[in-house]
Specification:
Number of helices: 16
Oligomer: single chain
Number of strands: 2
Order of helices and strands: HHHHHHHHHHHHHHHEHE
Strand content: under 5%
Length: 347
């Protein structure tokens, strides 16, 4: 009988993280199946392997899973679609259609993947009703979390990246439905989960910043300036530490609004300027113009639009924005001066 190394690796990590077999494989596979995998007697599918490792908050050793031509193509398509989504580009219908043609209908992991990105595409392009989005997201989450409902207690669960992504989508959609308290509770849970159960920063980086941004935006809507400021600051530090720029302008913008509302108008203006400038320098000129208009309408603040060419008109990031983080920018790095309001990805 063949002996597979990936199972013992999985077992070692599971024991190290003090997770029981029942906790890890809940909704994914039977504990007897997990035992055979950990004993090296069964090779898990790529979807199951990824879900098990990501529930422990670590990168799966996907390279050790044998893949045929179609499975490898599915894997490539997943990476492409996720990359488009994370960078705010929802024009992935062709990629998603190709993926749907290749996926295996009985595979719950490909069902979840396709189901989530299909409804996110529909929400963005076809403006489907939030009730449809909510029902669809709950349905696909129950493929692996069979007892889920929006008010259930998830604190004892271990969740995969896909499950966390779907939960973020549910929380954002609850907010669209006007169920702000439920949305905030679920997003607060996700914030706590990322902070306490995701040791791998690369796994954490894709969605954690989006969670902080949503919470900051919702706090702003309710006029809770200090809460919104704290959340924006946390997101800025994390973005800088991960050298991740996409959501940084919106977090800087939120910080600027909060500071202005708290009486620090000049400091707030600098952050708004930095936010707009970074977008302009990144080539996101339409978003930059929208951000300038928003700052004018909300606070009556104005600031010049730059040409977006470095280094003229740059403003330095401050010490508190950089924080004590490793990697990313060093103190003294600059942001360009000029302004689009990025649409927050639904986690």
């Amino acid at each position: 009988m063949d002996y597979y190394q990936i199972g013992p690796i999985l077992k070692e990590f599971r024991i190290r993280h003090r997770i029981s077999q029942e906790e890890l494989c809940f909704g994914l596979c039977a504990t007897s199946t997990l035992s055979r995998i950990e004993n090296g007697r069964v090779l898990p599918s790529r979807g199951l392997c990824e879900a098990l490792f990501r529930r422990m908050g670590i990168q799966p050793p996907t390279g050790q899973i044998p893949m045929d031509k179609d499975e490898f193509r599915r894997y490539q398509l997943e990476m492409q679609i996720i990359n488009e989504y994370v960078n705010g580009n929802y024009d992935f219908s062709l990629l998603l259609n190709t993926y749907n043609q290749l996926r295996q209908p009985e595979d719950i992991f490909s069902q979840q993947f396709h189901g989530f990105f299909h409804v996110m595409y529909q929400k963005e392009h076809n403006r489907v009703h939030p009730c449809f989005v909510h029902d669809h997201l709950v349905h696909i989450l129950r493929l692996t979390l069979k007892d889920f409902h929006p008010a259930c207690d998830l604190t004892c669960r271990y969740l995969s990246s896909m499950e966390l992504l779907i939960l973020g989508g549910i929380a954002a959609n609850l907010h669209d439905l006007g169920r702000s308290a439920a949305a905030y509770r679920l997003m607060e849970f996700l914030k706590s989960y990322y902070e306490t159960k995701i040791p791998d920063q690369q796994v954490k980086s894709r969605n954690y910043t989006t969670v902080l941004l949503h919470l900051s935006c919702w706090s702003l809507e309710e006029g809770r300036w200090r809460d919104a400021l704290e959340l924006a600051d946390g997101g800025i530090r994390f973005c800088v530490g991960q050298n991740s720029l996409y959501l940084l302008p919106q977090l800087l913008y939120n910080k600027g609004l909060c500071l202005a509302q708290l009486g620090e108008e000049e400091n707030g203006r600098k952050h708004l300027h930095n936010a707009a400038s970074l977008l302009d320098y990144m080539g996101r000129h339409e978003e930059a113009a929208q951000m300038i208009r928003s700052a004018r309408s909300q606070l009556g603040l104005d600031f010049p639009k730059s040409s977006g060419q470095a280094p003229s008109g740059f403003v330095q990031l401050t010490e508190d924005e950089l924080g004590e983080v490793g990697g990313g920018f060093a103190h003294g790095d600059f942001l360009a001066s000029g302004a689009p309001l990025p649409v927050a990805a639904s986690s």
